[in-house]
Input
Amino acid sequence: MGRRLPHSYYQSEDVLLLAKDLLGKYLMSNISGQITGGRIVETEAYRAPDDRACHAYRNLRTSRTEVMFTKGGVAYIYLCYGIHHLMNVVTGPKDTAHAVLIRALEPTDGLDVMAKRRNLSLSDIKLTKGPGALSKALGLKKAFSGTSLVAQDTMIWIEDRNTSFHPDAICTSRRIGIDGSGEAAAYPWRFFVRDSPYISGHKTCL
Output
């Protein structure tokens, strides 16, 4: 077990910095007493109000996006295409509406539980490859959106286990699946570990 990231960590207004810094940290869950998790190897940053790919573009406040306007340090989990639950980390001060999408994990904890949830073998590379896959493996659902990442009894948290990647191992690229977002589609706001087999999209670095 590592040190849970403190509340202060999530208050930075630089969501790009946090999206990159989260690489090497561990996303963990404790659902019904079953602890699962893995090392983060791929993220994407989303930043209101100027980012057209962000759900809170132009500071749009809806029942879905309201959680993004809370003080950083909570989970924003939404349902994509009515199928996949996607795990985001809300960052920044209250009313900032910044978030980091966790796109891929290297599975490390509770692999047997994750494999059962995904109906895959323990060694299957698809176990936590992709944002929908990792959420299912960790048992994360839309109902948990707004959950604190820092409360003592929380079911979702992020740990620092004193592991990091050399700067040369980290790539930057355009985000995935947002082609209809105008100029925002070209923003280099995706960060990933170059040689990780768990990366969910292309491995072309900018």
